[in-house]
């Protein structure tokens, strides 16, 4: 399949988030996933693998959707010791095959790797499918979601690989990075369109920070060197990163081809996920991301996934390489994140106008990340489909695959596929086009 898969290019103005309800969660302090399982039915792992064919569809599946929606997330095996943090559970992939207006199959498979939980995201690039997690190299997956094994690009990749690589829609190259506690703490990598690792370059940073995401624009890479720092004292107890008041808070702009980084000091905050980045006519880099403040981050970090309300908000930074100055502003006061447990709305933000459209999914429903698939005949950049898996707080209610018209998110889904089982909420999905 071509590298220019339709799933590769998120259109510039479409950012689909999940919104969290205002009602407080009954769960407060909890630090083990066993507690998470008890208190958050939408996170409870499923105990087995299964597959089903010809799934029931309500509404009309767009016939042009020919491919697979794949989603990753933590799902410890039955009997396995509960990991100390939601982010640490073994990965499970859920997949739904759509073709000619039908939902041909659903299947779920654990990622079977001894060296990687590979629970965070799915990547399809240069004909290969990978399960990703940011502390190991990628794990290659076959078309039936079976595990092939760790993939190191012919021995060239010697670092971990972020779960949020970026495809350059103009060149077909894949930009990514690896970070970790051993120096170099940050390494920039680039794959050519054929999947060859053609560039690896250390980026100087003072220490290892938890760098979950980054951004690319037409000419630049944008680094998030933020104050959640490797904490040796936490090794073996939980995810060993904690907030630091002394580390500094910086965004960096670097040429995509490599070279020196221009750093910009910004207000204290942490970012898991970037929404959008671009360059304006004056050459300034404009970055939109979900920003966590110190208080919200430190309160939620140990029990992430439990609380029903996100303290993080959409935020914008404008970095001017010509003057070295930065401006920043809050864009919205709604609590949002990509992976939040309590999300019962899908929101589309227009990055240009700031307008938001939402679809409320109904009582008990919790939406997963919505993946944008451009329409076959799209002329506008938001024309296409948003695909997500929604779960219900009642474990007896099977999950649903939702397909929304991206231009009219506030309307009901154009199609709802009933899956043969409950699907725990997870992290990131992707669309792999069969075309
Ligand atoms: Fe993520």
UniProtKB/TrEMBL annotation:
Residues 25-40 have a biased composition (Low complexity). Its cofactor is Fe(2+). Its EC number is 1.13.11.-. Binds 1 Fe(2+) ion per subunit. InterPro entries: Carotenoid_Oase. Keywords: Dioxygenase, Iron, Metal-binding, Oxidoreductase. It is an enzyme of class 1 (oxidoreductase). Pfam families: RPE65. The keyword Cell inner membrane does not apply. Residues 1-84 are annotated as: Disordered. Belongs to the carotenoid oxygenase family. This is Dioxygenase. It comes from Cryptosporangium japonicum.
């Amino acid at each position: 399949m071509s590298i220019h898969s339709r799933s590769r290019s998120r259109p510039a103005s479409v950012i689909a988030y999940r919104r969290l309800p205002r009602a407080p969660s009954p769960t407060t302090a909890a630090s083990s996933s066993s507690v998470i399982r008890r208190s958050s039915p939408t996170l409870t792992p499923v105990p087995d693998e299964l597959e089903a064919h010809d799934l029931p569809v309500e509404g009309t599946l767009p016939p042009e959707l020919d491919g697979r929606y794949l989603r990753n997330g933590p799902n410890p095996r039955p009997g396995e010791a509960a990991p100390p943090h939601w982010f640490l559970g073994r990965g499970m992939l859920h997949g739904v095959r759509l073709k000619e207006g039908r939902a041909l199959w659903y299947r779920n498979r654990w990622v079977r790797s001894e060296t990687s939980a590979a629970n965070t995201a799915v990547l399809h690039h240069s004909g290969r499918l990978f399960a990703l997690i940011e502390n190991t190299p990628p794990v290659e997956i076959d078309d039936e979601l079976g595990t092939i094994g760790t993939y190191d690009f012919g021995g060239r990749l010697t670092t971990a690989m972020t779960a949020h690589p970026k495809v350059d829609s103009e060149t077909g190259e894949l930009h990514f990075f690896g970070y970790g506690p051993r120096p170099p703490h940050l390494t920039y990598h680039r794959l050519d369109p054929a999947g060859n690792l053609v560039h690896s370059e250390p980026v100087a940073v003072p220490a290892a920070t938890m760098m979950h995401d980054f951004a690319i624009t037409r000419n630049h890479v944008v680094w998030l060197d933020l104050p959640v720092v490797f904490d040796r004292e936490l090794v073996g107890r939980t995810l060993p990163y904690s907030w630091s008041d002394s580390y500094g808070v910086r965004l960096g702009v670097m040429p995509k081809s490599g070279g020196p980084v221009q750093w910009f000091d910004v207000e204290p905050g942490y970012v898991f996920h970037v929404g959008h980045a671009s360059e304006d006519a004056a050459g300034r880099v404009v970055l939109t991301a979900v920003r966590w403040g110190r208080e919200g981050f430190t309160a939620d970090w140990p029990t992430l996934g439990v609380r029903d309300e996100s303290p993080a908000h959409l935020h914008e930074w404008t970095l001017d390489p010509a003057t070295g100055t930065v401006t920043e502003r809050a864009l919205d006061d709604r609590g949002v994140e990509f992976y939040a447990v309590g999300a019962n709305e899908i929101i589309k933000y227009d990055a240009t106008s700031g307008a938001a459209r939402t679809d409320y999914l109904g009582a008990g429903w919790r939406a997963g990340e919505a993946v944008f698939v451009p329409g076959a005949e799209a002329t506008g950049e938001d024309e296409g489909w948003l695909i997500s898996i929604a779960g219900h707080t009642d474990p007896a209610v099977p999950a649903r695959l939702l397909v929304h018209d991206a231009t009219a998110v506030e309307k009901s889904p154009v199609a709802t596929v009933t899956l043969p089982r409950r699907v725990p909420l997870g992290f990131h999905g992707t669309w792999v086009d069969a075309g």
